[in-house]
Structures are given as C-alpha cells and as structure tokens.
Write a structure and sequence with these properties.
Number of helices: 13
Largest sheet: 5 strands, parallel
Shape: elongated
Number of strands: 5
CATH class of the largest domain: Alpha Beta
Helix content: 40-55%
Number of domains: 2
Structural class: alpha/beta
CATH topology of the largest domain: Rossmann fold
Radius of gyration: 24 Å
Distance between the termini: 71 Å
Bound molecules: adenosine-5'-diphosphate, magnesium ion
Strand order of the largest sheet: 2-3-4-1-5
Length: 258
C-alpha cells in the first residue's frame, strides 16, 4: 500500500497531530505534515512513512537526552575524541582510546588512569571518553578534585542512605580531573579513600593526574597505608594511559622559541 492520495486536509492532520502530542510524540507531531507531504510526493509505502516518523521522534529524543546528560554531567563543553590530534601525541595509542570509547570498561566497573605532564591532553581525553559514555547511555559526573572534595566535605554529615543518592557515588562513570596538583589534608585523603572504596566494583572512575603512582602517598597526606589501600582498589582492573609528550598548549611557543 502506498501513500498515493493527496495529503489530508488541515483538520484531519490537526487531529492526528493532537493525538501524537497527547501520546507524548511531540517531534512526530511537529514534523507530521512535512513528512506526509514528502511521502505523498514520492509515493512512499505507508510503512516507510511510519518508520520515518517514529525514527525522527526517537532520534530527536536521543539528541535531547544527550544534551541534558552533558549539561548535568559537568563535563566542560567542546572537548571530544574527534577533535583530539593523535598525531601530535604519539604516546597515546589511538586504538586503545577507540577501544575505551566503546565503554566496555564502564560496563565492567573498571577504572582508567590518565597520567602525564601539564598540557598533554589528559583532560581532553577524559572529557572525550565521558562524552562517549553519555552517548552510550551511561550516567557521568565530572569534577576537578578540588570541587569534588568541597562537595564531599559539605555532604559528609548526611546519612548513608541520602549520601548514596549523590551523583559522585551513584553515576556509572565518575571523572576526577587534576589529582596531584595539591596535597590533601588527612580529612580530604580519607574522603577520597572512602569514595574510591565505595565505588570499587560498583562503578567506574576515571582519574587524570600529573603525578606518578609513587608520589601518591605524598598527595594523600603522607599516609603510605592509605595510599597503598587506595591504589590497590584503583589499579585493580585499571587501564593506564601514560602520556609522555609535548604540551599542546605550548606548541606554538616552542615553534617561536626555536
Ligand atoms: P592536560 O589536562 O594534560 O593539562 P588539556 O587536556 O587541558 O591538558 O589540554 C590543553 C589544551 O590543549 C586543551 O585546550 C586541549 O583541548 C588541547 N589539546 C591537548 N592535546 C591535544 C591534542 N592532542 N589534540 C588537540 N587538542 C589538544
Ligand atoms: Mg587537565
């Protein structure tokens, strides 16, 4: 059966559009007239027209879900894996990043640690992977460590039940950016340790850091025992990207200084 007849009159379409809107199919309602006119013009089979109408509704909803999730995640805008220049940073294997981008590690509650000096793209890669996670329907929260510690201190007195609803505990992927730039107090180190312990086996963590693992006791208030216990959980089933290279920020400057 083809859509052969002329498009129905305005009144008929209005009724269909209203029904679609009542069913919550707002985008399908909006595009009904346009798609139907096209279908009639091209003599499209009815099932194809219906397919297109529903496909449009689904894709618009998906776009909206991604937009909302990106906003709620706190991921800084504009950084994607697509805009990462792998040729500039050969120590980052594109194939490994592509594998991580499929999000299998998040499904398995594994961790990612991105290490390297300033400006080499740690935050860019972390955010790019966060965006991929959202596209793959995982919940994501992004924090710089300093902000996360601030939020954790503010919420420390809440009951465990209320606390478990906080996004830094219950999202599928928690991105903690800039670990290592500041040394933590004992209270802060304990909060971070509890966070990593709670999420261990429950949800993924992605950490970016400018410090090698050996320097972690210093970061964690000089507490070797706590650092060992934290790293034990963090590094069990961990994907490490060790970036050794030039700062992307200083690339122009390097050229000028030569
Ligand atoms: P880091 O977190 O390691 O200090 P960033 O990820 O903040 O570095 O990178 C610094 C700036 O350079 C950002 O604007 C980032 O988008 C850009 N950048 C870094 N590496 C690359 C790269 N390989 N390709 C494209 N842009 C990059
Ligand atoms: Mg950074």
């Amino acid at each position: 059966m083809n859509v052969k007849t002329a498009p129905p009159g305005r009144v008929d379409l209005d009724k269909t559009r209203e029904s679609l809107e009542k069913l919550g199919l707002v985008h399908a309602g909006e595009q009904l007239a346009t798609l139907l006119t096209e279908a009639v013009k091209n003599g499209q089979p009815v099932h194809r027209f219906l397919d297109e109408l529903l496909e449009l509704e689904l894709s618009r909803r998906e776009e909206r879900r991604i937009r909302t999730s990106l906003r709620l995640s706190g991921l800084p805008p504009g950084l994607t894996l697509g805009s990462f220049d792998f040729a500039f940073q050969p120590s980052v294997e594109k194939s490994r990043v592509d594998t991580l981008a499929t999000c299998g590690w998040i499904r398995e509650h594994e961790t990612v640690l991105i290490q390297g000096p300033p400006g080499v793209g740690k935050t860019h890669l972390a955010v790019g992977l966060g965006v991929k996670a959202i596209e793959n329907a995982f919940s994501v929260a992004f924090f710089q460590l300093e902000d996360l510690l601030h939020v954790m201190k503010q919420t420390a007195a809440l009951s465990p039940k209320t606390l478990r609803r906080k996004k830094y505990l219950n999202v599928a992927l928690l991105v903690i950016d800039e670990v290592g730039y500041q040394e933590l107090s004992r209270e802060e180190a304990t909060l971070l340790f509890r966070l990593v312990s709670y999420r261990y086996g429950r949800g993924s963590i992605l950490i970016t850091t400018n410090k090698p693992i050996t320097a972690w006791p210093e970061i964690l208030a000089g507490d070797e025992v706590m650092a060992t216990a934290l790293l034990d959980r963090l590094l069990h089933r961990c994907h490490v990207l060790n970036i050794k290279g030039r700062s992307y920020r200083l690339r122009d400057l390097e050229g000028r200084l030569k």
